[in-house]
Structures are given as structure tokens and as C-alpha cells.
Design goal:
The protein has 482 residues and is α/β, with parallel strands linked by helices. The protein folds into 2 domains: 210 residues, 3-Layer(aba) Sandwich (Rossmann fold), CATH 3.40.50.10260; 261 residues, Ribokinase (UDP-N-acetylmuramoyl-L-alanine:D-glutamate ligase, 3-Layer(aba) Sandwich), CATH 3.40.1190.20. It contains 20 helices and 18 strands. The strands form 3 sheets. A 9-stranded mixed beta sheet has the order 12-11-10-13-14-15-16-17-18, with helices on both faces. α6 links the parallel β5 and β6. The chain is elongated and about 80 Å long. The protein starts with a strand and ends in a 5-residue tail after the last helix. It binds ligand NPW and potassium ion. The site of potassium ion has 11 residues, from β5 and β6. This is Bifunctional NAD(P)H-hydrate repair enzyme. InterPro entries: Carbohydrate_kinase_pred_CS, CARKD, Nnr, Ribokinase-like, YjeF_N_dom, YjeF_N_dom_sf. Its cofactor is K(+); Mg(2+).
Length: 482
């Protein structure tokens, strides 16, 4: 798993490392990494490094210091460097001296705009770990002149480092070069960061347990159920799907088919769309109601199920069965409307709730707000459930505080029926006995990958996302020899 640490934790780790490192050494490493990436970007965007123009936007702290030192390194490659100082009296002293020694130009903010407009590359050293709120007006005015690609030092200025929230003017970077460890902004707002690169400054030993994690493909591969010679159709679990209706059978077909494709376990469908489901998925055992569905090892309830009395009775029955439940879509609305439904649940059996922002607000009474990870964690504790909060970055929190983020490869997942596909995947992994937090995270990973493969750069309907599940699982499993 890939770790992500909040700014408090990074600062604490940096302090320990600074105490045993020669003065300036960490900043030199960081800045050298910035200069290497800047040169790569110049080669890519301009076709050469020497003779190009780079403008540094320099704030009052060490983030600006990194930019100034990077400018000094770039001078050695023949780059024409101009530093625009937002706070000349507080600019990083050693960095400024280094740039001056290297014969870089230094101007104040008032005189900065021509060099920003003429730049081949802009380096954003306005603010880093100490950022609070959106860009201040002087910085925002300068950023308006930028049209060249932007390399953000540590993180794009104006974006909250710990939540990724953008609440006003902010830098939108082409590439972000960060140091020591990734911060929440990098996974919660990758759109503003662009490509993210991590430069090692020797922090790893000081960091401790991460605050957030991202599942690597190897984690998903290790978790995904693969049958062995001793397995039969029951050993990977039977998934029950309570979804769809005679009028809206689509959700049932999408959720059920996705469960069929996820593992080699069996799938039962219970509801009024049984005929349509069977026509598409003949391997599914269909019944008209959850009460005569037979035994399952997990239930998915909600997609297209309706929020009337019938849906309510179905959800209650499913929650009473003592098996893991993934409650999605209408099931979430029902729980929001009738919280006592959760009394039917054996507290020891896992529950996975999969709200988008609107459903999250219905469920908890408040929108997720700027700090989506904290919001998901609080809801997970409150409902004693795994909460998968959908978004471009999907956050999955467990009641014990474990939190992972799944970053989408593009925005193709945001399409009608896509959530039904995800719920089927989660249900199949729950039936196979995976830890519910890992099940939700692994399902989100494969779901995102299926959308990416199916879309191939153009919009894609949910049925094609579903059809790409085998290719996505194949790609994941190819990562680890078994
Ligand atoms: N420590 C280390 O070992 C290493 C650290 N490294 C680097 O140091 C960076 C952290 O540096 P830092 O802590 O000096 O502060 P930094 O982020 O530059 O902020 C400067 C000042 O900006 C201001 N400001 C705040 N919000 C603002 C806004 N929205 N818009 C505009 N301005 C705003 C605020 O000033 P004030 O409120 O006092 O006016 C604040 O004090 C880190 O990200 C990394 O790049 C690396 O070299 C590796 C080794
Ligand atoms: K920055």
C-alpha cells in the first residue's frame, strides 16, 4: 500500500530529520529534484533546455526557497531564470543569494507579469506545506498571467494541502514535484496537481503509520479471489443481489452481471426483474423475492430497488440475514429515511455504504464538505460501517479509522449505471470473505480500471464498463505471479 501523510505528520518527521542533517541539505535535494523535472518539462514542451525562459513565483517561505535554489540549478543548464518575489523582505535568504550568484534576474511582484507571460515554464513556489486558504490577491493576480505549463513545488498553491479543497484562486499545475512523502492533496485533488512525482529526501524512516493509503495494483492482485484446485462454485461465496424492478431492470442487470464477472462464485438475483436478468446472465439463479432466495454469503441491496414499502421490507430482510451487506443507492435513501432499519442488522456483520455526495448528505444530514476523508471517517464510525464516498477521488473509510483513496483514471466513471456495476463488484468480494474495507477499495480500483480500459479516451456507457471487468481483473492479476 502506498502511504499518504498529513502536513502535521510530515513536519514532525522533517524536524527529526533536520536535526541530524547538515544545514540546507534537505532543501538542496528537494530543489535539485525540482530542477531535474523542470528540465524534463522544458525538453518536452519546448524541445530544448538551454536558452529557454523559466519564471519562478516565490512566496515568503521555504517553498519559495526550493524554487530559488531550483532556479540557481537551472541557470547551470543555460536557462534564463527570473524570480518574481511576492514578499521581497521575507524571501528565502540563502536561495535568493544562490540565484543571484548564478546571475538569475530578480523582480518584485509589480514588475513580474511580463516575465510570466513570456515564460516557457513557470515554477510555483508561492506556498507549500504552510498554505492556508486560497491564493492571496497579490499571488492570484500574478497567476492570472500564466499560460505556460506550471511545475508546482510540493503542491499547487491555493489548494489545501490536507484536504485538496479549492475555495478560490489556485494554481493548476501540469506537474507537481513533492518531497519525502505524498500529502493528502495529491490524492484528493489530483486534477490540480497534474502528474505527481515524489523526490526522496530520506524521510521514510521518520514517518510512521500513514494517515491515508492508496491500494497499489499488487495489493488488489493479492486480495482478489482466485480459485484453487480445491475450490467449487460455493467456496468463493454466493452473492445475492436485491436490485432493479420490472419497470427499471437495468440496475439489476448491471449489478448482477458485475458480480458474475468479479469472481467464480455463484450469484443469486432476487426481485421483479428476474426474467430480464436471466436473459442476460443465464448462470444466475433468479427468484421473485429475497424471502425465497436461498442462502448467500453477502447481499447487495439498493440499485433501482425503489424507496417504497417493498424496498423497505427487502432491505430489512437482507440486513437480518447475518451476512455482509453492500447498501447502495435506494438502500442508502431508505436508511436515511428510516434509520431504525439498521436495528435489523447484527452489529458483527459488515455493512458497506456507498454514497455519492448527495446520498451522503441525506444519510448524515450534512454534505461531505471540504475534508472528505474526515467526513467519510466520521460517517464510518457513526454507522459502524465501511463508507465508500464516491467522487473523482473515492474515499473508503472503515469504522476503525483505516482510510484509503482510489483515484480515478479520468472522469469516464461518472455515468448512469456505473454505481450499479461497483456495487456488484463489492458484493462479490464480500461473499468471498474479504475484509469489507479492502473489498470496497479493491472493487473501486477494478471499477476505475474497467472504465479506463472501456473508455479508451471517449465516453463509455456503464454496460461497457461492466464488459471490461474481465480485462481489468486480468490486468491486475498479471501484476503478481501466482
Ligand atoms: N522543512 C523542510 O525540511 C523542508 C521544506 N521544504 C519546503 O518547505 C515548504 C514549507 O515551507 P514553510 O513552512 O516555510 O512555508 P511555505 O509553505 O513556504 O509558506 C510560506 C508562507 O506563505 C504564506 N501563505 C500561507 N497561505 C498562503 C496562501 N494561501 N497564499 C499565499 N501565501 C500564503 C504564509 O505566510 P504568512 O501567513 O506569514 O504571510 C506562509 O508562512 C514545503 O512545502 C517544501 O516546499 C523542502 O525544502 C524540503 C525540506
Ligand atoms: K507551491
Amino acid at each position: 500500500m502506498l502511504g499518504i501523510w498529513t502536513t502535521d505528520r510530515i513536519r514532525a518527521a522533517e524536524e527529526k530529520l533536520l536535526a541530524v542533517t547538515p544545514e540546507g541539505a534537505l532543501m538542496h535535494k528537494a530543489a535539485f529534484g525540482v530542477a531535474v523535472h523542470a528540465a524534463q518539462m522544458l525538453a518536452k514542451h519546448v524541445g530544448r533546455v538551454s536558452g529557454t525562459r523559466v519564471t519562478l513565483l516565490v512566496g515568503a517561505g521555504n517553498n519559495g526557497g526550493d524554487a530559488l535554489w531550483a532556479g540557481a540549478f537551472l541557470r547551470k543548464r543555460g536557462v534564463r531564470v527570473t524570480a518574481v518575489l511576492l514578499k521581497p523582505e521575507r524571501a528565502h535568504e540563502a536561495g535568493l543569494a544562490a540565484l543571484r550568484r548564478a546571475r538569475g534576474r530578480v523582480v518584485t511582484a509589480d514588475d513580474g507579469w511580463p516575465s510570466i507571460e513570456q515564460a516557457d515554464l513557470v515554477i510555483d513556489g508561492i506556498v507549500g506545506l504552510s498554505a492556508r486558504g486560497p491564493l492571496r490577491s497579490d499571488a492570484a493576480a500574478l497567476v492570472e498571467h500564466v499560460s505556460a505549463p506550471v511545475l508546482a513545488v510540493d503542491l499547487p498553491s491555493g489548494v489545501d494541502p490536507d484536504t485538496g479543497a479549492v475555495d478560490g484562486p489556485a494554481v493548476r499545475a501540469t506537474r507537481t514535484v513533492t518531497f519525502g512523502a505524498r500529502k493528502p492533496v495529491h490524492v484528493l485533488n489530483p486534477g490540480f496537481c497534474g502528474q505527481i512525482h515524489l523526490v526522496d529526501i530520506g524521510l521514510a524512516e521518520e514517518l510512521g503509520e500513514p494517515d491515508l493509503v492508496q491500494l497499489g495494483v499488487a495489493d488488489v492482485a493479492a486480495a482478489w479471489p482466485v480459485p484453487g484446485p480445491e475450490d467449487n462454485k460455493y467456496t468463493q461465496g454466493v452473492t445475492g443481489i436485491a436490485a432493479g424492478s420490472a419497470t427499471y431492470p437495468g440496475a439489476a442487470v448491471l449489478a448482477t452481471g458485475s458480480a458474475v464477472l468479479a469472481t467464480s462464485g455463484m450469484v443469486r438475483y432476487a426481485g421483479s426483474a428476474a426474467d430480464v436478468v436471466r436473459a442476460d446472465w443465464p448462470e444466475v439463479i433468479g427468484t421473485g423475492s429475497v424471502t425465497d432466495a436461498g442462502r448467500v454469503q453477502s447481499w447487495v441491496a439498493g440499485p433501482g430497488m425503489g424507496t417504497g414499502n417493498e424496498g423497505r421490507a427487502t432491505l430489512r430482510h437482507v440486513l437480518e440475514q447475518g451476512v455482509p451487506v453492500c447498501a447502495d443507492a435506494d438502500a442508502i435513501t431508505l436508511i436515511a429515511k428510516f434509520p431504525d432499519l439498521l436495528d435489523a442488522r447484527d452489529p458483527d456483520t459488515p455493512l458497506v455504504l456507498t454514497p455519492h455526495a448527495g446520498e451522503f448528505e441525506r444519510l448524515t444530514g450534512a454534505a461531505p464538505g471540504a475534508d472528505r476523508a474526515a467526513a467519510a471517517r466520521a460517517a464510518a464510525r457513526r454507522f459502524d460501517a465501511v463508507v465508500l464516498l464516491k467522487g473523482h477521488s473515492t474515499v473508503v473509510a472503515a469504522p476503525d479509522g483505516r482510510t484509503l483513496v482510489n483515484v480515478a483514471n479520468g472522469s469516464w466513471l461518472a455515468t448512469a449505471g456505473s454505481g450499479d456495476v461497483l456495487s456488484g463488484l463489492i458484493g462479490a468480494l464480500l461473499a468471498a470473505g474479504l475484509d469489507p474495507w479492502l473489498a470496497a477499495g479493491a472493487a473501486a480500483h477494478v471499477h476505475g480500471l474497467a472504465a479506463y480500459l472501456a473508455a479508451d479516451g471517449v465516453p463509455v456507457p456503464a454496460s461497457k464498463i461492466q464488459a471490461a471487468i474481465p480485462a481489468a481483473i486480468r490486468a491486475v492479476l498479471a501484476y503478481t505471479p501466482r
